[in-house]
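Severity: low
Component: inverse-folding endpoint
Summary: output formatting inconsistent between runs
Steps to reproduce: submit the following structure tokens with default settings.
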């Protein structure tokens, strides 16, 4: 099955194996490369660089989605047996993709989350938090949700990540993923949260992770914390 939807501002791709986002004035902060796509199984025509749409290819066995591929730009190749559902609204597409993150075969879950983050006019923070907190979802998928929550543009993402670190129900791996995601937030949001975790979190490994990422921040507030820790009696 195939369908398309509008890409959010700053997303572009070559219609084949490269997707970029956070692009402005010809420069992009982030890039995703699907290097394993071969000319043999390529189902999309290549282009130089398009700002959309996002195009999704799903392979199903029965009711289970076993493969998901994401393209931006370009056009579909003709394929026998492929059902093209046409263009969906971006919010509708994002909702469907996040439902796959809970239900699809492993591998398609994480790809579905990434594809949802490319959708235009959608605020994903609350949905990503629900996935991250859901202990019935595989850990790898929950960690993917935490990562993209940290990349989200909404300021509310920082509070959500901070809540994940503090929650008693979260295991250490998810908490550490949330600490990393906080380190990827804008400095004025992420650094104060990491300092608070380094000061007060009860798990020494989580505190250590916060201190490590503060050390990568090149922020004067982090230096002040290190001085305080090193001179503490």
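Observed output (run 2 of 3):
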């Amino acid at each position: 099955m195939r369908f398309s939807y509008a890409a959010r501002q700053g997303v572009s791709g070559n219609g084949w194996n490269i997707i970029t986002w956070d692009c402005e004035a010809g420069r992009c902060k982030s890039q995703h490369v699907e290097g394993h796509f071969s000319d043999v199984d390529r189902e999309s025509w290549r282009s130089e660089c398009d700002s959309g749409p996002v195009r999704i290819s799903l392979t199903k066995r029965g009711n289970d989605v076993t493969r998901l591929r994401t393209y931006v730009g370009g056009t579909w190749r003709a394929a026998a047996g492929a059902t093209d559902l046409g263009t969906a609204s971006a919010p509708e597409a994002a909702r469907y993709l996040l439902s796959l993150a809970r239900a699809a075969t492993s591998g398609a879950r994480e790809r579905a989350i990434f594809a949802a983050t490319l959708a235009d006019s959608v605020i994903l923070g609350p949905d990503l938090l629900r996935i991250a907190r859901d202990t019935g979802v595989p850990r790898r998928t929950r960690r993917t949700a935490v990562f993209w929550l940290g990349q989200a543009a909404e300021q509310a993402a920082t509070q959500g990540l901070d809540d994940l670190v503090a929650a008693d129900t979260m295991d250490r791996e998810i908490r550490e993923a949330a600490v990393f995601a906080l380190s990827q937030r804008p400095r004025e949001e992420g650094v104060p949260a990491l300092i608070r975790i380094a000061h007060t979190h009860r798990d020494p490994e989580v505190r250590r992770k916060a201190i490590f990422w503060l050390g990568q921040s090149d922020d004067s507030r982090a230096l002040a914390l290190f001085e305080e820790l090193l001179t503490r009696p």
